[in-house]
Amino acid sequence: MVKSANFSADGQRIVTISDHKIARVWNFSGKQLAELRHPSQDRISSASFSPDGQRIVTASGDARVWDLSGNLLTELKRDRDPVHSASFSPDGQRIFTVSWNNNVRMWDLSGNLLAELTNRWCADYGIVRSASFSPDGQRIVTALGNKVACVWDFSKQLVVVLKGHQNREVNSASFSPDGQRIVTASDDNTARVWDLSGKQLTLLQGHLEPVKSASFSPDGQRIITASEDKTARIWRVEGLDVLLARGCDWLKDYLATHREARERLKVCKRK
Record's InterPro entries (predicted)? Predict the structure, then answer.
């Protein structure tokens, strides 16, 4: 069963994890390139590429950094509470881990602990399942175990709560490459795309079982999802500019005869 799948920065590689305590690296044609085997008794719960696509960080109780051939580079010492999520910072020089006790820790690439954030973000919404930074490093989105994802600015002030998944856990949340959208994956068998105000833009339906992860491709035009239905799917999504242009096109006849509406929708005048 595929539990997670993520693109490399150039879009040419994908890393997947399954129930077998192994992460696998593939090319875009589906050929397996490497296996990453944790000695831990825990299953691998997350795997993602560094921004330059040359390293992979995995979480399985502890966190480990690998090269693309499957060689172990760094081990991040196991916390008192096991790590379930790990990812690189936008500049690739730091690694962020999330533990089952909602602690977020920052490490350097040598495995030295740099900072520890123990604020129980969005505590009313359950356990933090994943944490991902925006491309500019100014925001963080956390996926919570109770139906929502929370977006924070860099000073840990809550910006918006993403609500819409149907009474099921949110398993992952991550930003688009331009930082303007967020994709979430949930046990309600869907993935959803949001803008930064918390408005739902797109609903991705088709998986038959809970969706465990969802992430954008480097060009922001595709999303890859991994589900308990033993499949990973690639979806084509349109950017905000394309959606806006289409909406204005749909409204052009109406706007031509309704001047008041045309004045209010000034954004369509620029199209």
Answer: WD40/YVTN_repeat-like_dom_sf, WD40_PAC1, WD40_repeat_CS, WD40_repeat_dom_sf, WD40_rpt
Task: Look up the pTM and report it.
Answer: 0.62
In angstroms, the CA 100 to CA 119 distance is: 13
Identify the domain containing residue 267 by its residue range.
239-271
Residue 106 and residue 147 in one domain? yes
CATH of residue 192: 2.130.10.10
Regarding whether 245 and 232 lie in a shared domain, the answer is no
Burial environment of residue 26 by CB neighbours within 10 A (0 to 12, 13 to 18, 19 or more): middle
* 70 to 17, 64, 226: CA distances (angstroms): 14, 11, 22
| End-to-end CA separation in angstroms for the chain | 45
Q: Report how many domains make up the chain.
A: 2
71 and 185 belong to one structural domain:
yes
